[in-house]
Design a protein that fits this description.
single chain; alpha/beta; six-stranded mixed β-sheet; binds guanosine-5'-diphosphate
Length: 473
């Protein structure tokens, strides 16, 4: 189950001697056929200059599939992000869920927002919620390589219906391949028409189960606290069908949800454990920083000595605040943690001097067809439909042209984040990105092309597709 030094070297196409030397420099003496702890394997790979993509071979799912013994996997609770248009009730729903928490009332202490919380439902299952609603935070995390959300709850107001950010949220969830449960909110209002909302949503590919579709849809009122329990049970049901699993009996790995410098407590970070069990005294490498777990607590201030998969905990004992979306791993020695963090910091500094490049517009899927993902923005709705039809028709047997998101209105920072997360190209028609967005795109290495003439747009996309076919360009 654990990878040997030899296997790992072969996977990275490196000489075994070099890998052993690197391990020695990290303070680990090994022989060629020795099996490595997963964390050490991950770290040495990252130390040998593997970029995040390759390192992610050893990320949670893959570790579970490849190295982890399936017999050791146990069900874990789902992690949920709430999305939806502004004012449709995301914050109200988060509050309603929080107050429905069966276990929440027991602690009596002040509730602090730590970026994520876990609730115990009526039927005894746990659900974890990320406390920053909206697709911006979701996609920002994903653009840093962190996929933490298992299920998206899309809140749609039963009086307003589908709005621009509803569509954005649908597309961001779709691009991340995360299933969507719809909460049709504000059903207490006289003008509420939940059936009409279902109709509208089905135009965007979300079809309720009782219409033969795949999406669970529930009518709720966040304000009047109606059907919140059923919503939670549906999330649990969905999680059960997804067979979410992790191995709790190994060293922990996961993601930083939030971090800050607290004037009283010093650097604190909310960590979401994705696999393994995090314990007091564990040595951590977190992005470019490190630490030792001195204390763990939840949003009610309840202390933990151990945190199992899908548990968010605020951790004390970190050297300096990491960044949201950073990965953390537990390593055996404090000195390793420090050295690795130090060398990553140096690398990050060097890398920040060079612009990053997302030139890989292609995504070679298993079937050997290539995808060209495009985010299409236009000044008016009318040109949008015509353009996206023409573009989608350009798909060939070799290249699938995918419009992963389209919308009328300016190019936004959230579009750039989606482009980074999905390796997409942004195409604008009859509009210009503002300076801030342009700067962000440049920094992230995202290509934005804007056009005034449809013919030019089509010709350029065609050229990009041909470029994908020809490896020399
Ligand atoms: P967000 O922008 O999506 O986070 O929306 P909020 O949670 O801030 O809600 C926006 C407004 O809608 C607030 O005034 C809420 O009180 C109200 N609201 C939220 N949920 C409901 C509901 O179920 N019924 C009614 N009548 N009002 C609601």
């Amino acid at each position: 189950e654990l990878v040997t030094v030899k296997d790992l070297s072969e996977k990275m196409k490196l000489k075994v001697g070099d890998v052993i030397k690197k391990l020695m420099s990290m303070g680990t003496l090994v022989t060629i056929n020795q099996r490595l702890d997963t964390d050490i394997a991950i770290l040495v790979a990252s130390e040998l200059g593997y970029d995040a993509k390759l390192v992610s071979i050893y990320s949670e799912e893959k570790v579970e599939n490849k190295i982890e013994d399936p017999a050791k996997l146990k069900p874990r609770s789902p992690v949920v992000t709430i999305m939806g248009h502004v004012d449709h009730g995301k914050t109200s729903l988060l509050d309603a869920i929080r107050s429905s928490n069966v276990a929440g009332g027991e602690h009596g202490g002040i509730t602090q927002h730590i970026g994520a919380y876990r609730v115990l439902t009526q039927t005894g299952g746990y659900v974890t919620f990320l406390d920053t609603p909206g697709h911006e935070a979701f996609t920002a995390m994903r653009s840093r390589g962190a996929q933490v959300t298992d299920v998206v709850i899309l809140v749609v107001s039963a009086t307003d219906g589908v709005m621009p950010q509803t569509i954005e949220a649908i597309n961001h969830a779709k691009a991340a391949n995360v299933p969507v449960i719809v909460a049709v909110n504000k059903i207490d209002l006289p003008g509420a028409d939940p059936q009409k909302i279902r109709q509208e949503l089905s135009n965007y590919g979300l079809v309720p189960e009782d219409w033969g579709g795949e999406n669970i849809m529930i009518d709720i009122s966040a304000k009047k606290r109606l059907h919140i329990d059923s919503l939670l049970e549906m999330v649990l049901l969905k999680a059960e069908m997804m067979e979410l699993k992790a191995n709790p009996d190994r060293s922990a790995e996961g993601i930083v949800v939030e971090a800050k410098l607290d004037p009283r407590k010093g650097p604190v970070a909310t960590l979401l454990v994705q696999t393994g069990t995090l314990k007091i005294g564990d040595n951590l490498v977190i992005g470019t920083t490190y630490g030792k777990v001195r204390a763990m607590s939840d949003e009610h201030g309840k202390r933990f000595t151990e945190a199992v998969p899908s548990t968010p905990v605020e951790v004390l004992g970190i050297n300096e605040p990491p960044q949201a979306g950073d990965k953390f791993v537990v390593v055996s020695h404090e000195s390793h943690a420090r050295e690795i963090a130090q060398s990553r910091k140096e690398k990050a500094k060097a890398a920040s001097l060079k612009p990053r490049h997302h030139l890989s517009l292609l995504d070679i899927s298993a079937g050997n067809t290539k995808d060209l993902s495009i985010i299409l923005k236009a000044d008016v709705q009318g040109s949008l439909g015509a353009l996206s039809d023409s573009l989608e028709r350009m798909s060939t047997s070799e290249i699938t042209l995918k419009i992963i998101h389209k919308g009328a209105g300016s190019i936004t920072e959230s579009d750039v984040a989606l482009a980074v997360a999905s390796d997409a190209l942004i195409v604008g028609f009859n509009l210009r990105p503002d300076a801030a967005v342009e700067k962000l795109a440049e920094h992230e290495g995202v290509t934005i092309n804007v056009y005034r003439i449809i013919y030019d747009l089509i010709a350029d996309v065609k050229a990009a597709m041909e470029g994908l076919l020809d490896p020399d360009t």
